[in-house]
Write a structure and sequence with these properties.
It contains 3 helices and 11 strands, in the order βαβαβββββββββα. By secondary structure, the protein is α+β, with helices and mostly antiparallel strands. It has one domain: Jelly Rolls (Sandwich). Strands 1, 2, 3, 4, 6, 9 and 11 form a 7-stranded antiparallel beta sheet that branches. Strands 5-10-7-8 form a 4-stranded antiparallel beta sheet, with no helix packed on it. A hairpin with a 2-residue loop joins strand 7 and strand 8. It is globular and about 50 Å long.
């Protein structure tokens, strides 16, 4: 794929806010849920999938609409992941503080507020700085740009 055809993803872009999903919040107290673990799988709520579709994104096929429910009492060290992603801020006392929970991606930052939905390129270094005590939680999922239906792709290629 040449740089002219490579799909660009935002480094960090807000796509609005959604009320935190009650089912995801209940998952935080489910048996087997591990605070600080990146292995707490969860299905993406329909409201989030609809918001992504409005912006031309969908869950990455590999994940089949599943993502990760994550909670911590601390920050998250800077790290890289393999695909673009969405982050949905669900809860935490830090989200009420003016600078309580800072999400960093590359050279950009966003102070998380409950309900924030952010697209970001997780292939860039990213992490979280927490300056307030207490448990905070987010939902994250790999995403990609929506592909046109097969018939539309065939008709486009027939024109060229």
């Amino acid at each position: 794929m040449t740089s002219a055809t490579r799909i660009r993803y935002p480094v960090l872009e807000s796509i609005g806010a959604l009320a935190p999903d009650e089912r995801l919040l209940q998952g935080l107290s489910a048996p087997g849920f591990e605070v600080g673990s990146f292995c707490n799988g969860a299905d993406a709520p329909q409201a989030l999938l609809a918001r992504l579709a409005e912006r031309g994104y969908e869950s990455d096929d590999h994940d089949h609409g599943r993502g990760m429910l994550f909670a911590s009492e601390h920050g998250v060290c800077m790290h890289l992941d393999e695909k673009p992603a969405v982050l949905w801020a669900l809860s935490g006392p830090q989200m009420a503080a003016p600078e309580g929970l800072q999400f960093l991606v590359g050279n950009k930052r966003h102070f998380l507020r409950e309900g924030d939905v952010l697209l970001f390129d997780s292939r860039r270094e990213h992490g979280v700085i927490s300056t307030e005590a207490g448990l905070w939680a987010v939902f994250s999922m790999y995403v990609r740009r929506m592909r046109p239906p097969r018939a539309a792709r065939r008709s486009d290629s027939a024109r060229s």
